[in-house]
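Can you make up a polypeptide sequence alongside its tokenized fold?
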Amino acid sequence: MSEEDFYPVDETVVVPFSDATCLRAIHNLRWRLTEMLAGGPEAVVVDLAGLTGFSSTTVAALLWAKRRCGTRGVPLRLRNADPALAGRLRRAGLDTIWDIRTAPATPTPTRKVT
């Protein structure tokens, strides 16, 4: 796998999720979370860039990870969600469980009228 399974950024641990890596990321959360939490990070950040949908398996794994992180006092945060995915998560009420942030908007080029 060319991407890292998880990596530190400042005082957090980042776990990348994408359509291509979702199953591996779920596996890492289930089997390597203790390793991720060993250094006492301020937060575990699940980077959702490239993830277009959530399965029930993904939701279950993230709920499990949130509980495990919570027992250590470490928040689990969802970042860089596609706006459509973030909307579906909010409509499902999952924004009451997780801190969900969308990816920063990329500015659309404006055409100059001459």
Summary: Strands lie at 7-9, 12-16, 43-47, 76-81, 99-102.
